[in-house]
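Subject: Sanity check before I submit

Could someone independently write out the structure tokens for this chain? I want to compare against mine line by line before I put it in a report. The sequence has 643 residues.
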Amino acid sequence: MTQNAPPVGGPRPEDRINYAEVLPHSTKILILIGTLLGLFLAALDQTIVATSLPRIVADLEGLNLYAWVTTAYLLASTAMVPIYGKLSDIYGRKPILMFGIVVFLIGSALCGMAGEPWFGNLFGGGMMQLIVFRGLQGLGAAALTSVAFAIIADIFAPAERGRYQGLFGAVFGLSSVIGPLLGGFLTDNVSWRWVFYVNLPIGLVALAFIFSKMPQLASGLKPKIDYIGAVLVITFSVPLLLALTFGAEAAYGWTNPTVLALFAGAAASLIAFLFVESRHESPILPLTLFKNPTFAWGVLARFFIGAAFLGAILFLSLYLVNVQGVSATKAGTATIPLTMGLIAGSVLSGQLASRLGYYKNLILIGLALMMGGFYLLSTLNADTAYSTVILYMVILGLGIGPALPLFNLAIQNAVHRWEIGVATSAGQFFQQMGSTIGTAVFGAVLTSSLATQIPAQLRAAEAGQPPAVVAQLEDTARQAATASSGQGQSAPTFASIQSQITAGFARTFGSVETAVQSGNLSRLMTDPALPEGLRTGLAQIPPAALQTEQGRAGVLDQVRRQLDTAQADALATARKAYDLSGRAVKVAFANTISRIYLISIFVALLALLSTLPMPNLRLPRKGEGQGGEKSGEQRGGLASMEG
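---
Independent answer below. Compare away.
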């Protein structure tokens, strides 16, 4: 339990309004609805855009900037999370949440208008406009995600929070189901711009609920604002995220001078941040919080969970596309079983925590189940049945579900009320950083493993095959090696290969036909495209056979039959090589992704080991206070709270 005193100039704990005690339940539910709508905005935006990105890139002509549409949002939202958390502790949740929604809606409207003629060449064109406006969206979304979880701690007693925290996990799960479906529908039937415009009505409804029903939810603290700490948070997190993004790209790599400079800048900012925070009277992230074992071990566990969770989603979709053969669009919805398991685990664990009054054992059970889910996924191979994959996804979702809400609950229960905002946002910041670092590390594992797995599997496929098939497999292996270095193209379909072979034989027959009609076959004897048997046969044709129309027709008929036979043999060889290479690539992807899930088991184990030292604090019920405080004397009326 933290022993921190309130910052200089703050109220005494017993003087602070306990909103969990004084707000009517009906008002709490209305606040909850508005908060969930605001959170749904941010969660939906992370999933709805992905389905529309190919169409957006085609319209705005910015394929080279494809990844930055997501990266800009991530940079802005991650860097601002701890800052908004601290500001909400000082000025109250309501103004910060409303500010975040307004900024998010402005960013959404501008994203929808990116590339329109009236913007001209602002920021260099439509794609850069979208990237800048996505960054603005991220600035607003950070307030939604950081403040929303703190509001639950403000209006409900610790023992009641679990059942409502589960709803927040369900919102993220629901958005991952609705987002791809809605994004695809709007893009195909209306316009990709409505992927952003759809946020406006939802956001306005959320604003109406929050403005009319939510009290200030302020701590009453009036400390000095830590401006230097806020700047250092940004100069630490943004370069770090950029370094991780660039380092995972083939165009840069981890030893690139730009990447190393970004890492160095992030390290310098971190050192300066720790120095400033240890001396400021009201820091953005009070370092004394790390003396609280629940907070310290909790944020460390969330860091590992963030790395494991996002990796599970990203690489499961990759497995479904490259091994199971589902389309890229369907892969977005194929993870619904995992989402359903996550929602069920989140809601059920929250209800149990509220009933039992304790959370630690539920977290440990969830993490153990998560490890079991990762173990099952590590057994995936090229022949795993789709129904088996669904079962494994559900088990993993049931394991991840309890971790998301219950760590929030644990951290909020262990700190004083005036620290809830900064503690909650710090936990989320660590989780997002874990997701980013985990994605970069797993991406590096994917790239390096595929670079060795694909050639190895292609060589294994050559065993016992005829020389023509072996030659094509070796050519495929060379193309794979080129692609892994960032210089190759996407693999051709068999239809395109078949078309090339057919067109090649048609050209060969055309050349033979021209030579036969001219009566001069000598130039064909040096044509490497001509099959050896056909070249030998043509060399044996007496010149007199080419002097009559009937003789030339007979020669061409013989050539046609030989070329048809050779074409059939070539297509059969190509089909065999194509099937073998496709199988080899599937096996390579399955082996690589199963290896990533083996690493995920270790990451989940680190989360479990980080949880073990956490105290198993009881969740106080209504009227018992929190964090070692007395519940205090309540001051009358909602009017005074609004002030």
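---
OP: Matches mine. For the report I'm noting this point. Residues 381 and 590 are 5 Å apart (CA to CA).
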